[in-house]
Amino acid sequence: MTYPRKHLLAIEGLEPPHIADLLDLAESYALLNRSGKTQRDLLKGRTLINLFFEDSTRTRTSFELAGKRLGADVINMSVSTSSVNKGETLLDTASTLNAMHCDLLVVRHAQSGAPSLLSQKVDAAVINAGDGTHEHPTQALLDALTIRRHKGRLEGLIVAICGDIAHSRVARSNMHLLTTMGSRVRVVGPPTLIPAEAARLGVEVFHDMKAGLAGADVVMMLRLQRERMSGGMVPSAREFFRFYGLDAEKLAFAKPDSIVMHPGPMNRGVEIESAIADHPTRSVIGEQVEMGVACRMAVLDMLSRQLPRNR
Ligand code: ASP
Questions:
Q1: What's the half-sphere exposure (Cβ side, CA atoms, 13 Å) at 103?
Q2: What CA–CA distance (Å, rounded) separates 167 from 25?
Q3: Model confidence over 160-203: pLDDT tens digits?
Q4: Is 169 in the pocket of ligand 1 (CB under 6 A)?
Q5: Atom of ligand 1 nearest to the CA of 169
Q6: Atom 8 (ligand 1): residue with closest C-alpha?
Q7: How many other C-beta atoms are found inside a 10 Å radius of the C-beta of residue 122?
Q8: Model-level pTM greater than 0.85?
Q9: DSSP 69-86
Q10: By three-state DSSP, how is residue 308 classified?
């Protein structure tokens, strides 16, 4: 197994064998989870802290479940209950965590780079659970695993990532992972929501949904992240849906066996029509959540192999 780092802060910089090994390990955890078995001795005696400075339901619960299935002691710290609200700085928080001998630290923060900063100050292995508009590496891993389970590979697939690319850390991590693994990535959205760096990342840019979806194997929809927008970057939700919302008519341009994905939370009727989100054969949105637990187990397993014993 190859994984060269102490932390998982980003997908950018990982090489194909690192990603492939993580996905293979995650696949074995997906099978273990489906069999109803657990492996509670693996992280026995280890402490996992979920430190969330931003709201999350899916990701936090997923890491909690992953840690518990591997036998770790899991503690959830959210901003509202921590002393960050009382003015404690990020670095003071780091010393507190060091004093608690935390082994694995899962961090979500509204500021890009916050998990990386913490990783320089804590003894624990740090996992980025989403930082600003930068990256959300475990989301890209779970997306890749879901795609691989349906298509048998990543290489050569046409993947259309649609909607609010500019504010999406999910899109950024996916662009890095999928291009590294040889997929042909397209980003589709209005010019205001496509980041300037898209061309540098080796992806094709489309402003028309039907052209962007033509012949796609995978259609990945993203939420309009209004909380990160500074003013009128999009017209009304109704108009956005007309041009960029996924409905049966637009999906018909993708391959007939294409799959539909969404990292959640979904805005039904804004970026995706309910009938498509709940489509019994095309939508794999539920499976993404299931693969999330398996991928997080794989990441915790892989990082814990490099931790010193008995800290
Ligand atoms: N849950 C994802 C994230 O944390 C996507 C989203 O919020 O739209 O980035």
A1: 23
A2: 30
A3: 999 999 999 999 999 999 999 999 999 999 999 999 889 889 99
A4: yes
A5: 9
A6: 223
A7: 23
A8: yes
A9: HTT-EEEEEEGGGSGGGG
A10: coil
